[in-house]
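thread: overnight batch results

M.L. [08:02]
morning all. the overnight job finished for the chain we discussed friday. pasting input first so we're all looking at the same thing
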Amino acid sequence: MQAKHLKLILASTSPRRRELLGRFGLPFEVLAVEVEERPRSGEAAEDYVRRVASAKSAQGQTLAPADVAVLAADTEVVLDGHIFGKPQGREHAREMLGRLSGRTHEVLSAVSLRRGGLHWEALSVSRVRFRDIRPQEIDAYWASGEPTDKAGAYAIQGRGELFVTELQGSFSGVMGLPLRETAGLLRHLGLETERLLAGAPP
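M.L. [08:03]
and the structure it wrote out:
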């Protein structure tokens, strides 16, 4: 498949991933997929995010035409080996943010790309440090509505950045789609970095 005839599907309805992929100037369509997002017993966080991203792209491929490339991702917040996932409610968010307060955690973002029988993967690992967060700040943040569907109960691209004192790694990876790693995968489809930097033509 030549890049100029590339058909690409993003197997995610996340507005953050849609916005990040859109920065490349590529035409793409969005496809909703549903996979179980639950770590297996003893499963390492890195293995988990890779597995979920792979499952999303695989499901997307079953729903898409055969000539279409499918991109998917999974992002998780990890502290002391524990995968946080998304908050189930206010108290769960308070617990998450309370544990992250004043500490450094990891954000793992796996990307999976499929075309035909081919499959490519990449992983971004970032380290984020939070300042001490007061309980009333957590309550106010929850009331804003921002944390409800976010891994670790915060959005670094939104009000959640107020908690961050240090970031080592990829800002876009913490958002949900690491651009450097994604660009590397898109090279397999004939899209060189300079074309992405210029805004790939339709």
